[in-house]
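Running this now, will post back.
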Amino acid sequence: MASNPQRELDPEAICTRAVSRLIEEIRCVEIAPDSPVWQDLNRDQTRVGELRVYRGRGVVQKVVSAHFKLDAPSLESYMVTVFTRPESPVPHFVLDVVRFGPQASFHVDLLPKRDLGVSLSYVDRCFAPLSQVRADLERDGRFSAGTAPLRQRAFMSPWMALYTHAPEQLEVARSYVDRYFAHWTSLLTSCDAELALDPTLSARDAQQRKLVFSRELDPVWATLDRSLGASTVDLLLAALG
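Update: finished.
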């Protein structure tokens, strides 16, 4: 069946593809009466998007998916965050795809569950394999590296990809996201001792989530407070907690 090129250029397609693969191919998400949870996102009592929270299976604890679209400012945003179990060393997977005015951007990363500064074998297992795709992105003239505050970058991985590009390059962006996603899903099914469940990680994970997904660390939430309203942003942050 021929693909729909317009659909491929839609930011939603990149995030929907990731969620669909989790459900249909990897089968690590449960579809049950209370999963997914659907909730409207509103701006001034007008529906502008949707929040979905899926219950995970196995190593995956939950999947948070959200999107919203605004006319003023012109903004279309899609987000997928896959949380692994608190005691699992497998990194959390984060993906954001945004179209704003005449430009688009994507952000994809694996959030470390261990201290990279003292975990060389963990770095080699979870992150070093991303070095080639990261190098390919740096050489690709169609993409411009985005910026994030240094303080915030301290909580991300050095392999984080944050790039701005023309909307017509969304299909190419998806190919890079797919490479990150493929590596991450290989970690989900790994029997490597480095990725065995470790109860001592749970406390660190709770603190990491509290900081990474907070207004204190990430300035984007203050921007969304103004665009969506603080109560709507509170719903998103609660789902990500």
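The first strand starts at residue 29 and ends at 30. More later if anyone needs it.
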